[in-house]
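Form 7-S
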Amino acid sequence: MIGLRKDLERAIARIDSLEKENEELRRRLNLYENPHTPSSKQRFPPKELIPEEEKKQSGQKQGHNGTTRQQAKPQNTVDVTAKKCLCGKKLGLPSWIETKIIEDIPEPQPIIVTQPVRSQYKRMSLRISKKLLKKEH
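Output:
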């Protein structure tokens, strides 16, 4: 009888503990599930899993000839070597040398559109001389 009473007291204490934890978790859940919660803080249900046979394969399609951009030839070579170790000691010969090509792509320049406005002139003397030549012939 004493053993049952102790088990009952432990069970009641456990139930009280779980009820307090449940209440705290519900309170915290309500922080994220109310109309005033911003969309960035909302927790959404997990997406439905798509069966394997319905999934689309990513990447290029079968039979597609891929292309790789050709690597540019460097116009400048910069030697990057350290003279001293971080601790201050002189360095000997390097264990290996590594090369890397870095391409600096400049920002596109704005397009400049120009519309020339040309003034046209006719010389009066040229017109008169042409008329005279026509009359003579």
